[in-house]
Write a structure and sequence with these properties.
Layout lengths: L14 H9 L5 E6 L5 E2 L14 E6 L2 E10 L5 H6 L2 E8 L4 E6 L1 H8 L6 E8 L5 E7 L4 H12 L6
This protein binds zinc ion.
Zinc ion (ZN) binds next to loops.
């Protein structure tokens, strides 16, 4: 008899990705900030993209931003996402500077399709079912039910049917 292991999102991270997970806290957005020029960094890096300083610290930054683009992924090679069906991802221009890639609540795409360009969102860190930090974008006025639906999809392991 074989026991199937629950499905989780991919958990492999670089050393910087692991450091990001350790620095992240729920409901906030934590990214690297330069101690010399104060530029917020994304993706994670060893030196500042602006001044090349190595003085980068994890800090809580503003969660506000606007959707640049989104895409509904219809297929994934990763079993966790393959089981869940269509998955919405997007790029978000943060008010604090960088453009980040994040999981999007479906409501964000619906607003964009209604020609409300630059849909305002808040981006937060979330620990997924692999206990790794991922970025989650929610409409600024998302209800608790909408937020919970996407968080549940990301944070719960899937059992194979
Ligand atoms: Zn710098």
């Amino acid at each position: 008899m074989t026991v199937s292991k629950p499905l989780t999102p991919p958990g492999a991270r670089t050393a910087l990705g692991t450091a990001h997970t350790k620095a992240s806290c729920g409901g906030e957005l934590v990214l690297q900030c330069c101690g010399q020029c104060a530029q917020v960094q994304y993706p994670h890096r060893e030196v500042c993209k602006h001044c090349l300083s190595t003085e980068l610290d994890w800090q809580v930054v503003s969660t506000g931003g606007a959707v640049c683009a989104s895409s509904l992924l219809q297929h994934s090679l990763e079993p966790f996402f393959k089981e869940q069906g269509a998955w919405l991802m997007g790029s978000i221009k943060l008010d604090c500077g960088p453009v980040v890639l994040a999981h999007l609540l479906n409501e964000c795409q619906q607003l964009n399709e209604c020609k409300q360009a630059n849909t305002r969102v808040k981006v937060i860190n979330l620990l997924d079912a692999s206990q790794q930090s991922v970025l989650l974008a929610l409409p600024e006025n998302a209800s608790a039910d909408q937020t919970t639906t996407l968080q549940d999809r990301l944070t719960n392991e899937l059992t194979r049917g």
